[in-house]
Specification:
The chain starts with 7 loop residues before the first strand and ends with a strand. A hairpin with a 6-residue loop joins strand 5 and strand 6. 39% of the residues lie in helices and 23% in strands. The longest helix is centred in the first third of the chain and has 21 residues. The protein folds into two domains: 266 residues, Aldehyde Dehydrogenase, Chain A, domain 1; 183 residues, Aldehyde Dehydrogenase, Chain A, domain 2, CATH 3.40.309.10. The strands form six sheets. Strands 14-15-16-13-12-18-19 form a seven-stranded mixed beta sheet, sandwiched between helices. The protein is α/β, with parallel strands linked by helices. It is globular and about 80 Å long. The protein binds nicotinamide-adenine-dinucleotide. Nicotinamide-adenine-dinucleotide binds next to helix 7 and helix 8.
Length: 482
């Protein structure tokens, strides 16, 4: 379909919104990708009502039917990964190779969950009462609201929508305002997969209007949300108030610990990859590089040298390693963290300013800080940009303490060759995911994705662990009767 404005998908029909918003390429502000419908709260309620009506039948469909639909979606995503990747890179600003890899991941996620639907098993217990049978079964929860951020506009919707449908739920999907193009292409593929009317709905629009309509509607049984911690907590409070289920994946401020015995090449590679690739716009990015005394200076010198060689430019240019910042608002945030850190006495060792490219875009040179006061906002907050702070520590114990000194607990990494310390770190780092001699960002898609503290709330996402969120247990006792 090549209509503009690109419509919403409600009750099995493409529907114009109450308004439309332009989608602008952050690599080239003169490139308007298209205009995308903005749903009203009223249209959102219509989508919810329709998803609730569709749930009655969808929950009872054979897993074979669900498999076929999800597998078909996965196949089309994989077949069109280049096209999807191009849209993603164009509207979000990550490089073309990263964007195509994300499209592939989205396709495989649909295929993984297509098969996962077959594995909805239950348990049989021996009852404590003679002549009574006792079983536990899993049932879908109902209408699931899917609310997603802008930084992984294909993979995150895929790992929420696919399991929701596989386990027999119906979906109302609200993508982030910045990235409607990827969401629309994904929804177009889902819309052609043969799902019954109302099983899947797309409502594009703002958090304040569309998002809140989803969160507060009594027929939405649960919301799976990924986004910032303040928005997640606000949504969580509203869902708790009406007893709805929630799965909240939120912000991060991830430590990468580098010990004296680290392989310096590995340490530098992991720091560059973890802190700056994807323009630092990953919840699992390494924002704090916690480095022991003996290797600190060599590490900083080598990271600064590597940063000078990073090629910043148009996300879709073949040689680009760092694309633009996704939006003007995020660029302003990045610049203000740099200004504030410098004012507080931190040393700007590399980067940290806007740069120009062939086209007018939000280009920003990744920043590395040293000598940062431990309470500086650049150390405590989630910046969500290509900015990393090096914290010098005397030894491993101080490194672990610094790693855990955070309100967040998503991913934590260690670069070392000492098996005892690696094991100790794996056991004691306060994070949901640990990376050893690897960047803090980059997780296998079939394993659970989970965090602690201010980073996550509710059952893990991805892999078979997410069944806990997308289904609920029912316990059945049965006597013989008369
Ligand atoms: P955000 O919190 O601003 O928005 C996320 C989504 O929530 C968007 O779709 C937005 O429209 C919607 N929203 C906003 N206000 C709402 C409201 N009142 N009610 C309902 N919905 C509302 O986040 P963002 O800027 O899109 O994304 C960046 C954030 O996402 C970062 O904090 C990042 O760490 C986080 N993130 C986390 C993970 C993870 O798995 N932990 C993964 C990717 C991104």
């Amino acid at each position: 379909m090549t209509v503009d404005p690109f419509p919403n998908y409600i009750a099995g029909t493409w529907a114009a919104g109450s308004d439309a918003a332009p989608n602008i390429n952050p690599s080239d502000l003169n490139d308007t990708i298209g205009n995308y419908a903005q749903a009203s709260a009223h249209q959102t309620v219509e989508a919810i009502e329709c998803a609730a009506a569709a749930f009655v039948k969808w929950r009872a469909t054979s897993p074979l039917i669900r498999f076929e639909a999800l597998d078909r979606i996965g196949s089309e995503i994989l077949a069109r990964a280049d096209e999807l990747g191009d849209m993603l890179a164009r509207e979000e600003g990550k490089t073309l190779s990263e964007a195509k890899a994300e499209a592939h991941r989205a396709g495989h996620l649909f295929k993984y969950f297509a098969a996962e639907g077959y594995r909805t098993t239950g348990d049989i217990y021996q009852s404590l009462r003679e002549g009574v049978s006792l079983k536990v079964v899993r049932e879908p929860i109902g209408v699931v609201g899917v609310i997603t951020p802008w930084n992984f506009p294909l993979a995150i919707p895929a790992w929420k929508i696919a399991p929701a449908l596989a386990y027999g739920n119906t979906v109302v999907f609200k993508p982030a305002e910045l990235v409607p193009g990827s969401a629309w292409m994904l929804s177009d593929i889902i819309a052609r997969a043969g799902l019954p009317e109302g099983v899947f709905n797309l409502v594009m629009g703002t958090g304040a209007e569309v998002g809140e309509a989803i969160v507060t509607h009594p027929k939405v049984s649960g919301v799976t949300f990924t986004g910032s911690t303040p928005v997640g907590r606000k949504i969580g409070a509203a869902l708790f108030a009406r007893g709805a289920k929630m799965q909240l994946e939120m912000g991060g401020n991830n430590p990468l610990v580098v010990l004296d015995d680290a392989d310096l090449d590995v340490a530098v590679h992991c720091a560059i990859q973890g802190s700056f690739i994807s323009t630092g716009q990953r919840c699992t990015a390494s924002s704090r590089l916690i480095v022991t005394e003996g290797i600190h200076d060599a590490f900083v010198d080598r990271v600064c040298a590597a940063m000078k060689n990073l090629r910043i430019g148009d996300a879709r240019a073949p040689k680009t390693q760092i694309g633009p910042v996704a939006s003007e608002a995020q660029l302003t945030i990045n610049k203000s963290y740099v200004t504030q850190a410098v004012a507080e006495g931190a040393k700007l060792a590399a980067g940290g300013s806007e740069v120009t490219s062939k086209t007018l875009g939000h280009y920003f040179a990744p920043a590395l800080f040293t000598d940062v006061p431990p309470e500086a906002p650049v150390v405590r907050d989630e910046v969500f940009g290509p900015i990393a702070a090096v914290l010098r520590v005397p030894d491993y114990d101080a490194a672990l303490a610094a790693a855990n000194d955070s309100d967040f607990g998503l991913s934590a990494g260690i670069i070392s060759q000492d098996a005892v310390r690696i094991e100790h770190f794996s056991q004691n780092a306060e994070a949901g995911m640990i990376q050893v001699n690897l960047p803090t960002a980059g997780m296998d898609f079939h394993a659970p994705f989970t965090g602690r503290k201010g980073s996550s709330y509710g059952a893990p996402e991805k892999g078979s662990y997410c069944r806990e969120y997308f289904t609920m247990a029912k316990v059945v006792h049965e006597g013989r009767g008369r």
